Amino acid sequence: MDYQFLLLAAEGGVATVTINRPKALNALNADLLKELTQVFTELVKDEGLRAVILTGAGGKAFVAGADIAAMADLNPLQARTFGVLGQNLMQMIETFPRPVIAAIEGFALGGGCELAMSCDIRLASESAKFGQPEVNLGVIPGFAGTQRLPRLVGKGRAKELLYTGDIIDAAEALRIGLVNKVVENGKLLEAAQEMARKIAKKGPLAVQLCKVAVNDGLEMDLIKGCAYEADLFALCFASEDQSEGMKAFLEKRAAQFKGA
Ligand code: CAA
After folding, report:
1. Which of 236, 177, 243 is nearest to 207 (CA)?
2. Which member of 26, 110, 131, 136 lies 3.0 to 4.6 Å from 65 by CB, making a disulfide possible if both were Cys?
């Protein structure tokens, strides 16, 4: 499948999706959002896939936001449709059955920060900058930034970023828990690939169920979350991977997981 705004590469069970609209700092218009939705729809069919890296081309931005030129003249109903298109994509990434690692170089603003927050893990280069500057444009975030940001960094810090529109650097993003790790400039993709390859060696079903347990469990109270975890833990014992993983440990050899 050919994409206008995306580059797709795959190696060793790791797919790298690069948003490639550098002239507009990879701003998300409706076509780009649809292409991202399409690429994740295609990737889900790949049985050998173990992890996805999502990044931006050009070195200056991961994504500088939703496309302001494309939004400027929307009426309220069109704005809602556009917002839901973005929200649905982010929901799709958040619940994608494989881990999605955001590799963030340069600006991750507005819709770009929201896109990064829908990923499982965020790695940032030292040059990365984050913010939800929508209030500068007279609007609120439209791709679930008001929902994911407080869940990630807490209510007080989220409100400060949302109300001020401040842009923070990678070190501050790390301090408040918006990113997992900051990597030296120029080493970002290498670090993302290293992490993806590490994950790719683990039991794929176990990794997938960890994602489900965390995502769904956080929507429950602790007692229900623990009961849910117990069921998912039990489910692992229906897999060949569980038997292989434990046998391999006892036989002091590396496990050969099949994802079955
Ligand atoms: N939408 C559309 N175009 C954008 C864009 C965006 N979000 N961000 C940057 N661009 C375009 C610029 O218009 C410019 O295009 P031209 O060369 O054709 O003029 C090009 O990308 C380069 O940008 P700048 O010249 O502005 O680059 P800079 O280095 O001077 O500034 C920046 C970089 C600080 C990121 C600045 O571009 C900026 O402030 N961008 C907008 C950031 C923003 O407000 N994002 C939130 C958007 S709203 C949103 O995302 C809503 C939502 O939640 C759904």
Report:
1. 236
2. 110
Instruction: Write out pLDDT tens, residues 100-135.
Output: 999 999 999 999 999 999 999 999 999 999 999 999
Dump pLDDT digits (tens) for 175-194. 999 999 999 999 999 999 99
Which residue in the list 94, 134, 172, 194 is annotated as catalytic? 134
Distance, CA 191 to ligand 1 centroid (Å)? 27
How remote is the CA of residue 123 from the centroid of ligand 1, in Å?
Answer: 22
Options 35, 114, 172, 251, the catalytic residue:
114
State yes or no: is 126 an active-site residue. Answer: no
Distance between CA atoms of 83 and 200, rounded to whole angstroms?
33
Ligand 1: residue of 68, 89, 107 to mutate (most ligand atoms within 8 A of CB) is 68
Q: Are 115 and 102 in contact (CB under 8 A)?
A: yes
Find out whether the beta carbon of 25 lies less than 6 Å from any atom of ligand 1: yes
- Which two tokens mark 215? 């995502």
